[in-house]
Amino acid sequence: MNSTDIILKADKIQKIFPSKEGDVRAVDGVDLELRSGEVFGLVGESGCGKSTLSRLLLKLLNSSGGTIKFKGEDITGYEKNQLKRLRRQMSLVFQDPHTSLNPRMTIYDNLARPFKIHNLANGREEITVEIVRLLKSMGLQAEHMIRYPHELSGGQKQRVVVARALAVDPEVVFLDEPTSALDVSVQAKILKLLAKIKEEKDLTYFFISHDINLIRVISDRIGVMYLGRMVEQGEVGKMFKEPLHPYTKGLFSSVPEPTPARRLDSVLMGEVPSPVNPPAGCHFHPRCPEKMAICEKESPAFEYREGRKVACHLYDLD
Ligand SMILES: Nc1ncnc2c1ncn2[C@@H]1O[C@H](COP(=O)(O)OP(=O)(O)OP(=O)(O)O)[C@@H](O)[C@H]1O
């Protein structure tokens, strides 16, 4: 596949969670294209739907509407046996290494599971060979295999979590805040390792982070989400040079040059409204400094403008 091939595509994907307060519109009609070999960075304030979107794309959650295609094949209605195949093609690295490994299992047993589930190696001997190879590729040693997760440092645990995600030899890896639970110095090492693995294995990364500076450095393209919707999506250089959506502008303009782990929540004025009762029209209009009358009534389409996609009425006037 070359870099312009679309490996994963979502059209109007939606997830509504029923709750006591009403329906939570966690993901509200998102369009997305993931290109083979790229790092796609997803940003947005806490609760805007980033994790839910990634779980929908991975088919860990069933969608309430819309379609998802993997390599051109519609996977929206995949059944259990088809999902098993998909689990080898796309894998996930969770945020917190302390909770994503089974604490009662050794590192060997944690890493052996994907080999057993997917019949990727036969017998203890073959699995051991694979696990040692994986551990070494992650900068760990064979002897780590006999340890329990609590005997490893946070960075070592996250290396094991990445190893487990790579055991199935996937094509796409979803990384949901993979370094946010780690110390800054450890974060840098894990990011370097992830970049190296990506090149070696020709992987595609879907990278979720609150840290805009990190997303800027590691991504080829980025998507900005607000209250369940994608508001802007495009090539990283263009987006940072000239953000179009007022939300993206607010998000980026207040981030000074590399300040590690600056949280989005501290950047924008006002609270994000509830996804149970999102504002009519453009969800961002109550916080938007460039609001127009139409923004309160009509939801803007997510359309190509100036080399990227944006959902904002300001650009309807062109
Ligand atoms: N199982 C669920 N039931 C009800 N509501 C849910 C469920 N999962 C998520 N939500 C709600 O959906 C919205 C989106 O949540 P999600 O975790 O996807 O956001 P996020 O952008 O990943 O947040 P964070 O950055 O804090 O992880 C939130 O309002 C959340 O409370």
UniProtKB/TrEMBL annotation:
GO BP annotations listed: peptide transport; transmembrane transport
Superkingdom: Bacteria
Q: What keywords appear on the UniProt entry?
A: ATP-binding, Nucleotide-binding, Transport
Q: Reply yes or no: does the keyword Nucleotide-binding apply.
A: yes
* Chain coiled-coil ranges: none
- Determine if Membrane is one of this entry's keywords: no
Q: Where is the ABC transporter domain?
A: 8-252
Q: Name one GO molecular function term.
A: ATP hydrolysis activity
Check the record and name the Pfam families matching this protein. ABC_tran, oligo_HPY
The protein's matches in SMART domains, at most eight in alphabetical order, are given as: AAA
Q: Which CDD domains match?
A: ABC_NikE_OppD_transporters
Instruction: Report the transmembrane regions from the record.
Output: none
PANTHER family with a match to the protein in the record? D,D-DIPEPTIDE TRANSPORT ATP-BINDING PROTEIN DDPF-RELATED (PTHR43776:SF7), TRANSPORT ATP-BINDING PROTEIN (PTHR43776)
User: What NCBIfam families does the record tag this protein with?
Assistant: oligo_HPY
**Family, as annotated:** Belongs to the ABC transporter superfamily.
Q: What is this protein called?
A: ABC transporter ATP-binding protein
Identify the species of origin. Answer: Halonatronomonas betaini
